[in-house]
Amino acid sequence: MKRFFKRLVVPLAAVFCLQMPVALAQSDIPSLGDTARAELSPAAEYQLGKEIMGQVRSDPAYVNDPVLTEYLSNLGNRLVSADTQTRGELTNDFTFFAVRDPTLNAFAFPGGFIGVHTGLLLATQSESELASVLSHEIGHVSQRHIARMLSQQKQDILIPIATTALAILAASAGGDAAGAVLMGGQGYAIQKQINFTRDAEKEADRVGFQILKNAGFDTTGMTSFFQRMQTATRTYSDAPSPYLRTHPLTSERIADIDARVRREPYRQHADSLDFFLMRAKARLVQDDSEPALQTAAAVFEEQIKSGSKLYMAAGNYGLALIALHRKDIAEAKTRLQQVKKTVGEAAARQSLALNSLAIEIMLASNQTADAVREARAAIARFPSSRALAHQYANALYMSRQYGEAAKFLRKQVQMYREDPVLQRQLARVYDAQGKRALMHMAMAESYSLTGAYSAALEQLDLARKAKDVTFYDQSVIDAREREWKAIVRDDLKKR
Ligand SMILES: [Zn+2]
Q1: Contact 285, 100 (CB under 8 A)
Q2: Residue 10 CA, ligand 1 centroid: distance in Å
């Protein structure tokens, strides 16, 4: 499997190596805050995070699955908004996403961007365990640990260093022989140095625990997940998991968390159906090669035999996804029916994953009118769902209701100005309607949102030359061109 960001790790490692020891020498976290704040404002921190995220999104390891992303985002934002203190000085929304990687790891980078390896998602046994990992990472962000580390670097090399920091956090070579060779001995040494300090870990635990508690999760999830990681390490290899390497787990830390958990009355948290469904999905997303699918199918069959409702639902859901992947629509439909039978219609209607799968199956079997109806009903249940909005627009397009699709998408792009998928969908609809200028303008917007400004400017040129370009379009094109050219210029200056 391709390592996350391997291209960036090697060339930048040397820069990082020169700078890091200085930062470590002063890694007394509480006293760092004030000077750090003067250098890297929360707005600058967010900007930095956004730039890194742009690169993450174009990496093949980034999991581009709208439903899985939305599940993580809903869970994460529920944690972030449980307490007004959590956000710290950051005013922006947090972004949660999955990375295709079988190792146990989660990481945060400046500005509230939090990634979870599919391997970690699979290792968690309850939603509270997953929430405890996210809470700990949110703690690192709200205490601005990485931002503080980065603030000690010189401003002009801030971006390459942030990128390297991410690469090292994410690639987490060590336990993987190929990765270790790739990064070289020096790389591995650096990686050890970027580990959060003990103080930072304790602080992230303390804040994470509070977040977990305020959001109504079972706080024992924190201890049970740590125990699970330690057991996994002892059983399978001598090397600690990447998570333990980047977030060193000391006995003092475990005792601290344990004491905190014991002081709280036990609070049960009912896991959502989608937690189990998303673990099934993560298994397939992690590796969709034929042998991996066969192994996954065997796991799903076992889950169906388990007798536990949620596991039975997850097993059938996983088999439905495999069937859909193999274009066996009849089998996918049967499996989806099984899931609904297991959990009941009411619970099925409340599951984003099941709503989305039903639409997907209808589209795959060319029941486009049914898909439109189903998607419209699903949107009424989940009005803010991005995944369902994309599916509804797609269903309208597939059923050739271009006028309706354009109307819906134009409203959506006003509400969600940063969504490149909507703009791409809009371009496709305009294309079907034969509206050339508008099509190129929507493509331009889509490219600009992924940071591909030269491609965006090319599209503007094509829009300007289109036969159906209006006077009004021209003025929009001119304004966008000025704006994007200025961004490109500033970018060149920075580098
Ligand atoms: Zn940590």
Answers
A1: yes
A2: 24
Q: What's the CA-to-centroid distance between 18 and ligand 1, angstroms? A: 24
Q: What are the residue boundaries of the structural domains of the chain, listed by start?
A: 6-263, 272-382, 400-495
pLDDT in tens, 43-72: 888 887 887 787 788 778 899 999 999 999
What is the C-alpha separation between 222 and 216, in angstroms, rounded? 13
Ligand 1 centre distance from Cα of residue 116 (Å): 13
- For residues 330 and 139, give the distance between their C-alpha atoms in angstroms, rounded to a whole number: 46
The pLDDT of residue 15 is 25
pLDDT digits over 292-318, tens only?
Answer: 999 999 999 999 999 999 999 999 999
Question: Which one has a higher pLDDT value, 381 or 24?
Answer: 381
| 303, 329 Cβ separation under 8 angstroms | no
Alpha-carbon torsion angle 472, 476, 481, 486, nearest 10: 140
Instruction: Report how far ligand 1's centroid is from the alpha carbon of 248 (Å).
Output: 7
Q: Ligand 1 centroid to 149 CA: how many Å?
A: 14
Span from the CA of 453 to the centroid of ligand 1 (angstroms) = 35
